[in-house]
Amino acid sequence: MSEYQSINNLDLAKYIQSGDTIVVGQGVAEPIVLTQALIDQRDNLGQVNVFIGPLYQSPFSAEHADHLKFLTYCGAGTNKSIIEAGAAEVILANYSELAPLFARGSLPSDVVFLLLGEARNGRYNTGLVNDYMIDAARRARVVIAEISDRVPWTCGAELPEDIVPDVIVRTSREPISLGSSAPTEDDLKLARNVAEFIPDAATIEIGIGTIPDLVLEALSGHKNLALHSGVIGDVAVELIKKGVIDNSLKPFDQGVSIAGFLLGTRKLFDYAHENPSIRLAPTSHTHDIRVLSRLQNFYAVNAALEVDLTGQVNAEVIGNRYLGAVGGQVDFSRGANLSEGGRAIIAVSSTARGGSVSRIVNRIESGIVTTPRVDVDIIVSEWGSAELRGTTLKQRAERLCAIAHPKFREGLEREAHKMFQTL
């Protein structure tokens, strides 16, 4: 039986013990009313661990590390400043592994904070996300839920019957809304170069943000596309409305766009509400390579912070700053490589810091490799593309130098000659 509380009367010390790990809903599904209460009451709780995914308008900050030890798998959004202040530790795992880690208890989840939509037929709906939180909640001692009447009711996101929130706080809070930043001319070139590889009838995995949105916009003239992705955003909805994404040729989930969570604006939330053509699925379906390999013409589009001349991809660290994540890049790349007709595309801007630094490098300085060279298929920059499957080290270096920014090519070619002249 759930206990109903007003946020003003919620005493977290009744439910949280010193040393507990609290797992908080991620992205736009962060239960901000509960996280703010945790911040306000942290002095009364002792030292606790807080596991967070990417957060975008979160009240969490490094100053709260006096009592809250942050754990995360991702350096995006709010997390970046918390990590840079030394207030968070990064857990390394493929995204597909997070749910099983919680299910086994390898990642603890003593207390879970969820954002839910209103109940129907006695069952609540996670609304904005279907990810590792279900597995975390199933093992939790206490589940505390913020239930907002502004959360959409989405297909596939029903809270399982065996998970009943122990404490419920009702709100009418609007979920976090996210849009894209204005693109540059180089962004447009990069997106067009990516889109050129994607044929009609492809099943697409792609993120959100400026480049992914531009890639999707460049596909507006395609036919019979399908979506099987970790996330769905506003631009994908426009392609669904136009019939560009119709999911008609998938071997399973026909007629349905599959994603793990919604990340966008109210336009997206309203479209997904009670819409059977969009289904939120757990990572066991969205990211499992055994599922992905059954999709024909599966095209995975992911991003890099750096690519070295052998094709190794760093999507996590620049210098000593953890900015990205392992995320689903390896899952999706391997799934695309196993898919009949599939391709794995890594998009990388050729430069950073206003053009002063090349993102295509002779060696990855940090030593952090997200996707190994043997799993990399196509690297795309605004200067062109490098297809790497079945190539030698020397061929890889030549092709990657050719898509680096022109002002860095000569230096990279010299380094490549020294590195690979005998190979």
UniProtKB/TrEMBL annotation:
Pfam families: AcetylCoA_hyd_C. InterPro entries: AcetylCoA_hyd_C (IPR026888), AcetylCoA_hyd_C_sf (IPR038460), ActCoA_hydro (IPR046433), NagB/RpiA_transferase-like (IPR037171). Residues 264-416 form the Acetyl-CoA hydrolase/transferase C-terminal domain. One of its GO terms (biological process) is acetate metabolic process. GO terms for molecular function: acetate CoA-transferase activity. This is Acetyl-CoA hydrolase/transferase C-terminal domain-containing protein. It comes from Sneathiella chungangensis.
